[in-house]
Design a protein that fits this description.
Elements (H helix, E strand, L loop, with lengths): L1 H24 L1 H6 L14 H21 L3 H11 L1 H12 L4 H25 L27
Helix pairs in contact: 1-3, 1-6, 3-4, 4-6, 5-6
């Protein structure tokens, strides 16, 4: 389960970097697979760059947390990142895009993020019963708050 969570996390990070790069380097081609029939023209095409940098940032965050070994934090991040693809699916449907793209690309991505977050939660240490750490060594490197200065 831990290995599957790691593989999915790496793939998510790499896909985010790939999508971000595509929207920066060739936005018209990248946009064609996104699912909204009418794309912005002129200055409004700057929205492609917003999409690009959002995806690049997401990919860097995912890969950095994984590289640092912060699996529970990554699980929370992926859980929250799932908002974006479900929002994308809703947007595609709302603006007349194909249901196949909305569900097969965006909603499926959201489900993948939720599943990966669940696998990360299930396979990472950091919480005993009710989220209480029973063994302080599980949080090695995290020091208690020094309250003497407060």
């Amino acid at each position: 389960m831990r290995r599957l969570a790691t593989v999915l996390s790496v793939l998510i990070g790499l896909f985010c970097l790939s999508f971000g790069s595509q929207f920066l380097l060739d936005p018209e081609t990248a946009a064609a697979g996104y699912g909204i029939p009418a794309w912005p023209q002129g200055d409004a095409a700057g929205y492609f760059w917003l999409k690009a940098f959002r995806d690049l940032a997401d990919g860097v965050v995912v890969l950095a947390l994984l590289a640092l070994g912060h699996r529970r934090a990554l699980a929370w991040v992926l859980l929250l990142f799932a908002i974006a693809p479900f929002g994308d699916a809703t947007t595609v449907i709302t603006y007349g895009g194909p249901y196949a793209t909305a569900l097969g690309v965006h909603a499926a991505t959201g489900v993948t993020l939720l599943v990966t977050a669940g696998l990360l939660f299930a396979s990472s240490s950091g919480g005993g019963k009710n989220g209480i750490v029973s063994n302080p060594r599980e949080w090695e490197g995290i020091r208690p708050l020094d309250r003497s200065a407060v």
